[in-house]
């Protein structure tokens, strides 16, 4: 291997959480990965150490100007006991694009993937076995230089923490369930020229208010509209959105405001392979409303690493509740979920070459 990291094992391993009651992102494994950067040395001192608090100067740039980024991926245990990742080089390439936009240092994709593999290898026992569970991985980079000027930091820390997670939907036997989504017409998530395509913290802190709107309307998430006209559909919460109208599946084009999801790219490739028409094009909410009225709105679903595929059963738009399809889980969403989840967890042959063994 091109990159080598030191490993300091914990002397006080934790008791692992009960796999039957695992929540999302509450429990953390025994170790974490850390690597430092400064302008003179580049990335250096990659190491795996016991999980725990870190010490930072209160003037560290990340606290004041939000110069930081994160990634989200999972390690899965297959029925025959192997451990695998799903398309990790896509996360590594996305990291490069995010870093470039945020004036953060470039990172060799091989370094990113080597670090992910190294921490997963050490935390192998932390990957739960139960159906629907996995080890969620959170790589992130923060600006650590102590300086109160608005400029790019000269020092950074790259870290990876791991969290055993349960199934996203609480369904006996696993699988997916329809959700209600609120169409957010007032607040916006991202504008052209901004940082919507990058996984940077500010995008999510700024989205919490809309999450409150959704909850106030009895919905689990918002459907974001574009920043200019508040009329084109963009994303659903922190996941990419797909609309099936007639026999065409439509998703927003990547023009700077959409996070280019690994799951989104995989959905597009699978639909193409299956001969289902998939268009990356602007779609107005008015077109979605009209389709729901004339009965051609077949399905809406969201895609992302956390939930894989989330079907939408109902849209709340102004004071109307629009039923999507028959309000249940659509066949396209189900087929995509089965294919992706099956490949990720090794219960189905990976005929796309997307999984990487650790
Ligand atoms: C992470 C994220 C997604 C999904 O990306 P995946 O790589 O599929 O997990 C979509 N939209 C937003 C805003 C995100 O933060």
Describe, in plain words, how this protein is organized in 3D.
The structure is a single chain. With 358 residues, this protein is α+β, with helices and mostly antiparallel strands. 23% of the residues lie in helices and 30% in strands. The chain contains 8 helices and 18 strands. The strands form 2 sheets. Strands 1, 2, 3, 4, 5, 6, 7, 8 and 18 form a 9-stranded mixed beta sheet that branches. A 6-stranded mixed beta barrel has the order 9-10-11-12-15-16, surrounded by 4 helices. The longest helix is centred in the last third of the chain and has 15 residues. It is globular, with a radius of gyration of 21 Å. The two termini are 13 Å apart. Bound molecules: pyridoxal-5'-phosphate (PLP).
List keywords for this structure.
alpha+beta; binds pyridoxal-5'-phosphate; 358 residues; nine-stranded mixed beta sheet; 8 helices; six-stranded mixed beta barrel; 18 strands; single chain
Outline the secondary-structure elements.
Layout: E1 6-7, E2 31-38, E3 42-50, H1 61-65, E4 68-70, E5 73-77, E6 83-86, H2 88-101, H3 109-122, E7 134-143, E8 155-165, E9 179-184, H4 201-205, H5 208-216, E10 221-225, E11 233-236, E12 239-245, E13 248-251, H6 262-273, E14 277-280, H7 285-293, E15 297-304, E16 308-317, E17 320-323, H8 331-345, E18 355-357
Parallel strand pairs: 1-3, 9-10, 9-16, 13-14
Antiparallel strand pairs: 2-3, 2-8, 4-7, 5-6, 5-7, 6-18, 7-8, 10-11, 11-12, 12-13, 12-15, 15-16, 16-17
Helix pairs in contact: 2-3
The structure holds pyridoxal-5'-phosphate.
Residues 72, 199, 235, 238-240, 259, 261-264, 303-305 line the site of pyridoxal-5'-phosphate (PLP).
